[in-house]
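Dear colleague,

Thank you for sharing your sequence with our group. We've completed the structure prediction you requested, and as agreed, I am returning the results in plain text so they can be pasted directly into your records. Please verify that the sequence below matches your submission; if there's any discrepancy, let me know and we will rerun it promptly.
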Amino acid sequence: MSKIDPIARAQQMRDRGTDPQIPYPGADKQWPGICHARGHITLSSYSSVVSKGQGPCRTCAQINNSRKAAEKRRVKPEVAVANIRKANVEPLEPFPGSSRDAHLATLAGYAMTVLGWRVTTADLPIDAHLAPRDQVLAALGLDGPLQEQAWDAATATAGLRAEPFPFTVGTLTELRASGVATGLVTLRSRRRVDWLLPPDLLALLDTVVCFEDAPPKPAPDGLLLALDRLGSDPREAVFVGDTVLDVRAARAAGVRAVGVGWGYTEPEALARAGAEVVIHQPDGLASALLLLTRDRQPNDYAKRS
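Please find the predicted structure tokens below.
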């Protein structure tokens, strides 16, 4: 039985396209590395890469297939943005196609409340998911001032459809167990955050900065406010986001920007915006974030976030 050479094994991983970031952990354990092809974190084991020949970055092989599948069911963002701008409105974030159903349900619910008869999403204009809210409501005969209470009620009801990603609670739990302070910076109002996020998830956030608390991203104010509340240094923090505005806000705040490729924005766009790392799949997300926060630590007593 030959003696294991950790240095040689690290070189074997480099030869196959990933640069290990920690010492050799064992053949079958995840070995965090940086993918040569796209520069994001890989979490494959030595055994899977070298012995089984699976390649260091499982996500790279899946990106093109997943992108093609998504394109078939996605409204093109440039079309949505163009329609919004025709109404002299500048979007604050990329078109959130994945929330289309909830948005349509909100429009229908509001119209049904105000008009007093049944309105379903099938009754909405064909381009209701692209057009400005006021334009859609006007097409239904609602051209007066928005009734805020009715709109809030419709938003809350439609929001019951929205579910956090299944890994979110586990990721936050693991981060907090490792001593990492957690927070959320969002364009949502505080009232709507309480509707959209379940109590068990909110309980895992040490602070929440909402729309009314600070100027919206890409301004860094919200991030800086969250860090001030947490007592954390921006240089020792990581901000995870899925939009270009998230990345820009992090960079403006002096925070390490981490993009995630399963949200609103293509991974390549996040990288172009300046994300230091882009993670394509949620598997091992907590481990990757812990690796990144530890990389910034001057000592074991600094507060991470």
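Summary note from our side: The mean pLDDT is 81.

Kind regards,
the structure core
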